[in-house]
Structures are given as structure tokens and as C-alpha cells.
Amino acid sequence: MSKYNLDYLDELEAEAIHILREVAGQFEKPALLFSGGKDSITLVRLAEKAFRPGKFPFPLVHIDTGHNFEETITYRDQMVDRLGEKLIVGYVQESIDEGKVIEQTGKNASRNALQTVTLLDTIAKHGFDACIGGARRDEEKARAKERIFSVRDEFGQWDPKRQRPELWNIYNGKIHKGENVRVFPISNWTELDVWNYIRREKMDLPSIYFAHKRDTITRNGQLMAASPFLNMDEADVVTNRMVRFRTVGDMSCTAAVESEADQIDDIIEEISASKISERGARLDDKVSEAAMEDRKKGGYF
Amino acid sequence: MNILKFFTAGSVDDGKSTLIGRLLYDTDSILADQLEALQTSNRKNDDGSIDLAILTDGLRAEREQGITIDVAYKYFQTEKRKFIIADTPGHIQYTRNMVTGASTANLAIILIDARNGVVEQTIRHSYLVSLLGVSHVVICVNKMDMEDYSEEVFNNITEKYKSLLSSNLKLNDVTFIPVSALKGDNIVNLSENMPWYKGASLLDFLETVEVTGEQTSDYARMPVQWVIRPQTDELHDYRGYAGRVLSGTFKVNDKVTVLPSGSSSVIDKIEVFDKAPEEVSAGMSVTLHLKDNIDISRGDVLVNSGSLPQSSQLIEADLCWMDNKPMDDSITYLLQHNSKLTKCKVREILYKVNINTLEKEDTHEFKLNDIGRVVIKTADELAYDLYSENKANGSAILIDSRTNLTVGALMFRAVAD
Predict the structure, then answer these.
(1) Distance from CA of B6 to the nearest CA of A (A)
(2) pLDDT at A31
(3) Domain B2-208 classification at class level
């Protein structure tokens, strides 16, 4: 349908806005899952473009593991203030206190896996029928096969064998009671596309995306921020390094990369030349070759 | 820089996943950690080299069986273009997946194994490309290394293929390239093994193929997805019709008609977020304001009053059935045409196409992966164009309201009476 008069970023943007408006038009109670990471910040920007000067037809929902980078929470609160939109927070700590999940122990303990339960509880509590997320197909090979409108059953599970065909630009959001749809408007964007868009739109990001001095330790070959949330022992040597983060997740599972890039231009240059994909900086994908597929089937983002 | 979307058709044995893996590998689009995962994986080629096909076999079930079950999307970029690949399975039981991949593609790559030449599935894949109206086709004659890079083998296959193109099989723009995905011949760089080949390498071709003048009309169409009404004190009368322009151009002061109601007005203002351009065109997500206050809601289409679309409840359409449960003409399905949702019944099956021989057959039933011509009747009048003139406004899906699954793909071919 396109006549290719559109620049690639304009085309990706127009597609994402179209998808967001389909969510607004097709669902009773949608929500936008906001992690504080650059992809969900991009979604918020796209939502402004889709719905302003009106209000967003959905609240922002943040699943808080309690193990946050402080910079992310500061950013989140300032952003919500600026937007004047509603924020709902689901706390993993509450799920732990209620005995719904058990805190992991051991050296590689992380709350990343626990947040699936908190997410599903939050969806059920508010009755959300569609959750917009910032996942991209270039991140990981299971995601490469997921639909833009991805139906989850009552238990939040993704069934890769029962995916609906998604033709042209027509999105089928019909669901039964209890089911919900995860919607990924930036499915077709790559990490580089997101950064180029952030630069073009002059968007602010949490400061941890840019090079800064930080105490780190090396864990399973990756650089982790030294924090009270990481189970450290004598074997762990703390070193102060110039680092930045390529994704923002739970502090206990998001790895840093050594970098001097403190400006967006430098980051784009670094990514263009980079030889490690973004999810490679997350320990949670390393467990098995099919790690993401398994987590998604269980209801993960 | 713009985007080229292409899809690949061919079976596992044709080396389709290897071809895509090769494109990614040779354009440096595989990152170190993915490469590491590949190297530590148990699957290797016979000579011990990395099996590039693993790059696109995303799901565990697929890796276990060594086949592609679903559509996998892959991305790479060169200095000239951003590419989106829909990697689709080639076996006949996955026809619906191929139709899905082809529905958004500008270009199709059809693989032919040089050892086997044109086979039944080549015809089937070509038919689907023609049915979905994909603008450009590249026939990659693969595994040339196993035929001693023979020019004669390549020429015989291209001649055979050209002889198939007929009234049943119309393809606009076909290019033939001899390649070896496994060895990398003519994929990114021209191969020294085939000095007789004077054309471009596959990547060169993909980077430069002209994608303007796609199959779309100049008629301005915009389905309304959402009405923006802030209802605040200062924006009390603000009423913006939000949607994506399917085709054509809308300008300020253009006379537009709202369908299906038929009321008309004039464009007062166009907004694209914080900008107010004088005109917007196909592909853009926009907000339109009209001079008159008329009743417009989601599912309505705004069109240029000078070029009205077809309007009817009875439509002749090509149908591809996508569900395990056969089509049931006693059931009312839901039809989704852009933002419009209405009830629909299949009135009549005109014929089914044998997609291996392209012969039309009489039939009373439509099963998974069946393709043919039907007449549908919708509860509400639809404002549509013919698929051959305007893909975006000439296509729809059928939904089974018992399961909510997408069960059929429709391409509108004619107004029925």
C-alpha cells in the first residue's frame, strides 16, 4: 500500500500509531506496560502522537520489582507528571508478602521471573483486556514469530502453535472473557531504529543509558551494577568502571557494557558497530536456547 | 532510506532458511552473542560449518523437527535500505502462513532447487504470489554449486518457468538469479564461479529494485479508527478523525464523503501530531477535521468525493481458508475490513483452485489452505475497492465468532449481484 514516499522512521511511526489506535478502538480496557526502558518510553511518545490533544485511552502500568535503578523511577515519576496520565504500579514485593511467589536465593537470585505473577495479578485485578508492550521482533528468535496482536489465555500463556494469521494491516482483537491480548506496536523496529527515533524526536531518557562511572562486579562473564540486590560474596571484586546500560530491567539481571558513549550520537555509532545484541546483556535469556519461548508461554511480557 | 518488505517461498530442502541466514551473515547482521549461540548449538552442516538455517528457526518445536512452522520476521539494514523479511514455510500444509507473509510484502523470493528444477510447489508458490498481488518476484535458482554452476541448467529452468506464466499465473516483474545460499554465490557479491551470469547479485537487486508505483490507487481513502475528543474547556469543540491514509492524498479544502452514510463535508484542517500540513498521503497516520459537524465513528471511511469506492453488500472475492475447521456456509462469520466490523455469510462457492495445477474445480467445501472464488454477503454495506486496484481497501479477514480465530483471508474481485 505504501508508495515509498515515506522515510523508514516515518513509516515505522505511522504503523505504530495505527496499531495504538486499533487498540483504542477495539478494546474496552487497555493498558500500556511501562518499564522505564527506552522501548516503553518510545511507546509513550507514539501514544502522544496517536491521541493528543486527547487523553490516552489507557493508563500506564509499571511492574515494580523493587530492585530498580533509582534513575528509572525518578524518570518515570517526572514523565507521568508531565503527561498528566494515570500510572498504576504492581509491586513484586506485595506478591512476595502475600506468599504468591517465593524470593529466589543463591548467587544468581533475581526477581525477574517473579514479575510474571505480579503482572498477571495486576491484569486480573484491573480487568485489562489488552496490554501494550515494547517488545521487538529483532530482540530474540521466539519474539521473531510473535504476532503484533498476541492472544494470551486466562493463565497469561502464549501458545505459539495457536497464533492467529495476521494479514495486511488488519488486526483481530476478538477475545473470550478472561483472555487478553498483548500488543506490540514496535514489533518491526530494531534497536537501531529506536535509537534513531529517540534522536530524531529529541526524547529524554533515564541517565543510566548514557556512560557513567559505577561500581560493578563481573558475574557469568557480564558486568553487573554492584547493589544491595545482588547477592555478593568475597569472591566478587568491585571495580569502578565507565559503563552504560542497553536495556533497563531488574538490577539483579541487567548487565552493563563498558562504554564512553555519553551522547546519543556516540551511542548510535557504538550500536552500529556493536557485536553484542541487546538481549545478550540480560542474564535471563542465557539459561537455555529456548529461554524466551518458555517465559512467554508462561505469561511473561 | 526506505523499507523493502519481502518474503521467501520454498521448502526446507530448497535452502530457504539458509538463504536468509546467508543474507544476514554476509551483511554482518548477526551479532556476536547470536553467533556464539549458533556455534554452541548441536546442529552443524556436514562439513562442520555453522548451519545458518538455525538463525530463522525460532521455536523449539521447529528446531527439534528442523522445519519452519510459522512466519518468522527478520530485519537487516544496509546503507541503502531497511529490510523486513517474512520467512514462511513452504509445505502445502502451511499455505496460510505463506499467504500471511505475502500479504504485506513488496517482493517475493521463490527458491528453485537447481537439481530438481520447476516442481509442483514452484507453481503453487508462484500462484500465491500472483493471488496476493506481490509486485516483484525474484526466482533464485539455488544449489548451483551442486550442478557445477552450469549456465545450461540455469537457462533451462528459466525457460521452463517462463512457459508457465499464463493467464492463470500473472506476474508483473520477474527476475532470475542463479545462487548457492550455502556457499554464498551471488548472494551479496557476484560469484566467480558463474562468470556467465551478467545480472546483479541478490542483495544488489534488493537494494535497488524500484518500489514506487506499488499496486495502489490514487483515490484518497481513510478509515476512521478513533475519534479524538478532548472535551476540555479550551478544546470544547475539538473533534478529530484519526486514522491511517490507505491510498491517495487528502488536502485541506478537499471535498470528502463519509461512507457508508454518504454525507459529505470539506477538510478544514489536517493534523499530524503537532504539525498542521496542507496535505497528507498514503501510509501516514493522521487526524482530519471537517467543516461540518456530522456523525462519524470508528468503522466509517472518509474518501475523496470525486472518486467514490464500490459500495455493496454482495461481493465476489477470492478466499483463502485458514482454519482447521472447514468453512460452514450456514454460519454467520464476522468480517473485518480495516476498522469496520460486520457480520458476513458465504453465499456461494463459485470454484476452488487446485493450487498445484491451477485448475478450477467445483466444490461444496472449503478446508484448511483451500483457495477459491466465493460470493459473500455482509450485514452492512461495505465501502471497498477491488484488490487489484487497491490492496489496502480491497482486503478483509473472516473471524469465527465461536473461537475468535482468524479463519479466512478475502481479496475483493468484483461487485456481485
Answers:
(1) 13
(2) 97
(3) alpha beta
